[in-house]
Amino acid sequence: MLYEFNLFNGSLDEISPTKKLITTLNAHSYNTLYDDIIFKKALKNSDILLPDGVSMVWASSILKGKSIRKIAGEDLFFYEMERVNKIKGKCFFLGSTEENLKLIKERAIREFPNISISTYSPPFKPVFDENDNQLILDKINNIEPDALFVGMTAPKQEKWAFNNLHRINAGHICCIGAVFDFYAGTIKRAPKWIINLGLEWLYRLLKEPRRMWRRYIIGNSIFIARILRSKLLYSKTSKANSLITSEIKSSENKRKV
Predict the structure, then answer these.
(1) What does each C-alpha distance from 219 to 20, 124, 175, 222, 223 come to in angstroms?
(2) Residue 198: left (phi > 0), alpha (psi -120 to 50), or beta?
């Protein structure tokens, strides 16, 4: 399935400031694609799809023989905040709790004083009704932010952003999930040296074993199996196609003779 996706492999500063839907793909969300068609459609139709995690770097190397650089949701967040700060622009945080949003705003005001910051904590429900949705859109569109950060966890955030993209007046629409908690300080992210070693998943597993064991032990095993199976199937298909092409050329040459 990864063959269907075009993972971003450039520098974030190459992205134009015009309206863009920016999402991320990691092992957990990759597994979710198999059971959620709308989520798959949302990621495939994103303007920018970031490889979030060493899992995607590994998968790209195995399946495509292509070396890519990991770009996490947090990398995107800090790039966007610096970008908007430079232009003295506006950003909007959608998602999480009122308490988290307050912590986020307080920290952002200190670190990025040139940004006008707005927030909204939507109702905690699986699907918004039209009244909820219109209220969310009105709050965003009244601001017209240069960066809209959506933090409602995957796949809800990506599906909401994709389904409402034509109704959103914003620059970069960034689905960044757990970054809200990291930036608020309510969940501690792994130290840089652990992240650089590609072991952030292990850090999170050890910190929250009851919540994360299914994602990282079972989920990662399923992910690896799927990638290796895709590689095997692709190799067989490529070999079969090569044989068919060779036979066609051989037949054409015989007819010419």
Answers:
(1) 30, 25, 21, 5, 6
(2) left
Task: List for the chain the helix, strand, coil content (%; round to 5).
Answer: 60, 10, 30
Task: Please list, in sequence order, all residues whose beta carbon lies within 8 angstroms of the beta carbon of residue 32, skipping any fewer than 6 positions away.
Answer: 39, 154, 155
Q: What is the pTM of this model?
A: 0.88
Strand pairing partners for 90?
116
Domain coordinates of the chain in residue numbers? 2-189
Distance CA 217, CA 31 (A): 13
- pLDDT tens per residue across all 257 residues of the chain: 677 888 999 999 999 999 999 999 999 999 999 999 999 999 999 999 999 988 999 999 998 888 899 999 999 999 999 999 999 999 999 999 999 999 999 999 999 999 999 999 999 988 899 999 999 999 999 999 999 999 998 999 999 999 999 999 999 999 998 899 999 999 888 888 888 888 888 888 888 888 888 888 999 999 999 999 988 887 766 554 544 445 445 445 555 55
- Note the CATH architecture for domain 2-189: 3-Layer(aba) Sandwich (3.40)
> What gap in Å lies between CA 135 and CA 138, rounded to an integer?
5
Q: Report the greatest alpha carbon distance in the chain.
A: 80
Q: Which helix (H) or strand (E) holds 149?
A: strand 147-151
Q: Bridge partners of 116?
A: 90
Are residues 95 and 119 in contact, defined by beta-carbon separation less than 8 angstroms?
no
């309510």: which residue's tokens?
186
Tell me how long the chain is: 257
